[in-house]
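Inputs:
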Amino acid sequence: MSESAFEPKIVGFLCNWCSYRAADLAGTARMKYEPNIRIIRVMCSGRVDPTFVLKALSLGADGVMLAGCHPGECHYIEQNYKTIRRFKMLKHTLRALGIEEERVRLQWASAGEGALLASAINEMVDQVRELGPLYWPGNWADNEGSQDAIQALPREHAEAMEVPA
Amino acid sequence: MTEKVGVYICHCGTNIAGPVDVEEVARWAKENLDGVVLARDYRFMCSSLGQELIQEDIKNEGLTRVVVAACSPHLHEKTFRTACSKIGLNPYLTQMASIREQVSWVTEDRAAATHKAKMMVAGAVRRVQLQEELQPTEVPVNPNTLVVGGGIAGIQAALELADAGHKVFMVEREPSIGGHMAQFDKTFPTLDCAACILTPKMSDVGLHENIELLSYAEVDSLSGFVGNFDVRVRKKARYIDEDACTGCGICIEKCPKKVVDEVFEAGLGYRKAVYRPFPQAIPKFPVIDRDTCIYFERGTCKACEKFCPTEAIDFEQTDTYLDLNVGNVIMATGYDLFDCGKIPQYGYGRLANVFTSLEFERLCNAAGPTEGHILLRDGVTEPQSVGIIHCVGSRDKQHHAYCSAVCCMSALKFGHLVMEKTGAEVYSFYIDMRPLHKNYEEFYDRLLQEGMHFIRGRVAEVTDAARLPGEDGKLIIQAEDTLIGKQRRIPVDMVILLGALQPRFDAKETGLKFGVSAGLDGWFTERHPKLDPVATMTDGVFIAGTCQGPKDIPDSVAQGAAAAARVQGMISKGTVLIEPIVATIEEARCSGCRICNTLCPFNAIEYLEDKAVSYINPALCKGCGTCVAACPAQAISGAHFTNDQIFAEMEGLLYDVIGSNGATVKSPQPALEPA
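Outputs:
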């Protein structure tokens, strides 16, 4: 497969109140954008556990977009601030895992910003297309037992964290 | 999987069927997705025939789950949920895939669109099988209502409800209700005297048997949920016994201390240390201002106490707290005027004869400091020319990007009043004239006829530095007249700045207190900008008037009445259904770490000391899911958005990568396959 034929798969987590409505608006206004994003609706960007992002990447997504209301505009008052904090932590983790920063993106989009969301999606798709496929770890399937190893990680982590009595 | 899933692909005329091969999507879903027992495509799923199709299949084929791939769930989720529940399928066992807004309308390539639609259907099919039956809970509604703010919007809301026979508690921060409207002289475009139309409504509020007016009071805290809010109101000490006071006003007369009235008279007039903001104040009881009263300052005076015929003065009074229980809350907390001093080039605060719109209202008002004479700051000279500057702080990215909605009409009103009372020349400097309600354009026409001058252009500066003959002793307004493309210098005696309407200085705190969010500009956010303009994200809390955004009196009144109608609806129904999309804590898993406790802005999570676990009050929970994501023990689960449901949707959306059973397929990833 030539590099140019690579079409990235992006999973998007969009909050119900602003960014999902921005996606609605982009649709209503017939703004064309790249078809590579597949959107999951959550009530708030605060619902997005950073492990969702890791899970998506591990399943074979090449990038993940988190979108929410602008800071200060959250429909749950302040929950997107928690998203900001978690996103920072997530980036840190991804760096440690050797995953390029451009593969995850936190995008604010109010219900009126369909154009902004559409252009952010295009920009992200371009960036990830440039980076190429993420061979991690969803694409290790030929490497026998990798799934088991991944599943075992949280357990090992928990054991490591245990304080001896 | 034991679930029987029915998949319905909507054509939406050609909206979806044009860019997406809907037959192919249906065929593919039936052949490839586990659990799918039938997949149909149909012209309009939302039509009654489309809905019947689903209902027939539920009945005849025994469907246990329904997926509708059509428009955004914000449009028709409710439609399909209702259709399913009518035939006995729990409404939360349906799922929509937004293949119109997210696919057909935004994707150019038909093959790519069809492929994306398939993936979205796969996501919905995987997810729906893990969805659980949910039941909304029903709670009774307390018929009492709290109205916060006694401006025209709050007054209207309170009267509507009280006239319908319901008890209303009205809390007003100032000593009297009336709000900004009480300060105005005339109202546009009819030039009705503001007080003449407002004060009857104010006294209706004061006298109404169903309204308990709590003036000079503020809401201290609000807890509870729709139908059942606990409110604590702080009644600030008036130092006057309301039961004994007759409102005769002798105390005001005898008080030796005069202070500038910054609130009602906008700094132009004076009041006493014991005062009523204006003669028609409701309630009639005065207030002793602790900060300026001589007795509180030096420990002697008590002139008011000596002369009060009913011994109503009580210097020992303290703030009292009142606990109320109400079913609904209407917030009508109003606006503040933009601080015009923030635009120094317009000279407010530096050049004496630059006035704000509110100051001019008082200047014009017969009950105001000049008894209605339009005079310069010296108090004797009538202006011979007046400049009115629009959009001061509005439509200005440095301050407020929005249009304040009322200034154009205020300018016309001011122009008319100035010309009528003084015969002065009036110049209006506008960006765009926006007289956009009934009879407003006609009023603009009238002012054009009356000879008011309109100059289109934003004013660069107001200065007293004379440069040309005829400018000595004048204020010179420098602006570009964009219609003739020339710079103009207009010397005037008086300048009126039409300051922006901006959110109350404490709107943010107030919003937090009531669980109401605000937009970037600080106005409270309605539930839906078009279809639900007075409800908020917090059930049972409504907003009306300018706290939601700049608007004029008729719009404020309409919103006040609208909010009252919404509340009345809740009261007549008697009970309210609470969305079952809430988080719950599995006690056995909860370690009592309390990480979640501080995350909830609605205070829905409490810590149960006896069990050493946290507990989520379902009536307070709004279902955002932030705590679910935070729980290190995964003890919290968010109904309808569980981890498993979200993972399943993710797996479905990535069907082309991982295949049907969740096992990862080999790399490299295939490109979008042609349909």
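Remarks. The longest strand of chain A covers residues 10-15. The longest helix of chain A spans residues 79-97.
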